[in-house]
Design a protein that fits this description.
The complex is a heterodimer.
Chain A: E1 16-27, E2 30-41, E3 45-49, H1 56-64, E4 71-76, E5 79-80, E6 91-94, H2 106-116, H3 121-134, H4 150-162, E7 168-172, H5 180-197, E8 200-205, H6 208-214, E9 217-222, E10 225-230, H7 232-237, H8 242-247, E11 252-261, E12 264-268, E13 276-279, E14 289-294, E15 300-302, E16 311-322, E17 326-333, E18 338-344, E19 359-364, E20 370-372
Parallel strand pairs in A: 3-8, 3-9, 6-7, 7-8
Antiparallel strand pairs in A: 1-2, 1-4, 4-5, 9-10, 11-12, 11-14, 12-13, 14-20, 15-19, 16-17, 16-19, 17-18
Chain B: H1 2-29, E1 32-33, E2 40-41, H2 49-59, H3 63-70, H4 72-105, H5 111-119, H6 126-137, H7 142-150, H8 163-188, H9 191-199, H10 204-215, H11 217-232, H12 236-241, H13 249-259, H14 263-295
Antiparallel strand pairs in B: 1-2
Helix pairs in contact in B: 1-14, 3-14, 4-8, 4-11, 8-11, 9-10, 11-14, 13-14
Classes of the chains: A alpha+beta, B mainly alpha.
Amino acid sequence: MSQTVFEPWNDPQAKPLIQFKNVTKRFGDFTAIDNQTFDIYEKEFFALLGPSGCGKTTMMRMLAGFEAPTEGTILLAGQDIAPIPPNKRAVNMMFQSYALFPHLSIWENIAFGLKRDGKSKDEIAARVAEMLKLTRLERFANRKPHQISGGQRQRVALARSLAKAPKLLLLDEPLGALDAKLRQDTQFELMDIQETTGTTFVIVTHDQEEAMTVASRVAVMDDGKIVQADTPARIYEMPNSVYVADFIGEVTIISGTARRDDGAYEVSFAEGQPTLFAESDTEFANGQECHLAIRPEKVSITAEKPSDRRNALEGKILDIAYLGNLSTYHVELAGGQIVKAQTANTRRLSRRDFTWEDRVWLSWTDTAGILLKG
Amino acid sequence: MRRFVLIALPYAWLLALFLVPFIIVLKISLSDIKLAIPPYTPTLDFTEGWTGIKAFFSALDFENFTFLTTDDLYWKAYVSSLKIAFIATALTLFVGYPIAYGMANAPDHWRPTLMMLVILPFWTSFLIRVYSWMGILSTEGYLNQFLLGLGLISEPLTILNTPTAVYIGIVYTYLPFMILPIYSALERMDASLLEAAEDLGCSRLKAFWLITVPLSKTGIIAGCFLVFIPTIGEFVIPSLLGGSRTLMIGKVLWEEFFNNRDWPVAGAVAVVLLLILIVPIVLFQRNEQKQRELEG
């Protein structure tokens, strides 16, 4: 049985559900969104990821209709949404604070949007029952929001925003208020619900792990711009800039100059240190400044210099971050550069090979690192 | 012992300043009028011992309360007071809600100033403020001069000594009591609730009715009682602004006490007023209780 991969963004025939066309949003002198053009496809789980103040929330509020673009157009299913007020859009939003109506019961909260559509009593009751079942809230239908837990409130907010079967669901930091364990469970629940309902989800988050877990594509934002929008795996493995590499996961950035060396590049980064080698699709001129990004889990740590790898550096262990399943070693090279290396703790802690102040060798393959321009 | 003192203190306060005076008024209301000092009988005389106490209690009766039912002046005054208090409360709500709403939606740095402006009138004597309304509302007053000057009216309006003047006075005096609880309810409201309502298909107006009004309900109720309860017994405003035609129980009480020097009947009027007020006071307490429970 062949399974088609869900990648509408690679299909030139696919029609995007949402199109941002040269959208700029300014608040006075401040440019929140700077001339952005991108597409979101139907049934996508699209994550806007970035630090606070990067413009991700503004992007979402423009989709919901609470802000209008200063320049450019936003199309929803081919239609310009600028003249449509928020209460007429086929877009619903789940608020960061959940914004549950405190004077209404869970049932009434979920029915709120349906009642505004003038649906019949039976229709409303059926739809609310369906939503309660989807979010496993049947037992709490008659409670008020302040009588249930945070996780349950989060599910009510989700049920309420899904009840009207919107074309597009916006989630503003939906899991921010939950504790770590509950957040993880809820992430999988969100993915299940997204798959069951087939709704297009756009999620705003500053938590990179959350974005990587739930999203089909992640857009990393910085300063009003989308720096890179791609699948979680490509964002992690093939970041297009130092900013993205640094923002997603742990990374060591070694800055130096590049020199072509049949098929790969030779990177010299410090006086007295051996040069490093990396393969790259990006073209560099000889002597051009470059940044080698290397993930700690791709760096091996050994007591002796390995003979099979070209990239090998000697250093002293400065710090060990013990994470339970993993340990991250911070190794200082002779010139002061710090390189992170990660190993899985497959053995008991007492039998750990290395400790503070040990001299070790770090090594990686030519394909492990990514060579970036900036 | 410390605990006992802490609890006993407020009870002693209530006993001395509420219960004892009330019992004295109740006792007077059960007495008979007499040309003497004090102007009622019987008075408790302990020198005659047990028989004196027995004689004292046997002389008390409900005659004055029965008297209140025989003259229709009294029940008309009660009804009229309730009516005026009710209408004045509604008017105060209509004026106060938009002000509270405006304050709650004002930019943060404006709010302390606006709050100050609402409270500022309290710095001047209540009596002087009501008195100054006479200068504004009288036929030769500022309001008439202003309207005549603008050419909007050709004859001066008669506002002073009419119920209208009483309503103006009450709305003016009690407005802060309406604004403050509503403002505090509106200010606590999360703005994203209105966005959520809009997002789910409400127009702005509909969102106001379905979200803002219900969520400020406790503030509205508190404000209404804070205006309604003191207004029923209001004496200064109707006697200064309402003239002789405005019938309010506070004024009747004043006349019984000072003009007729009939302390027992005045006492009976006061006791009945208190009984009438108990209903809204209990309702008010319940509203406050409910609010506290909601806030958990």
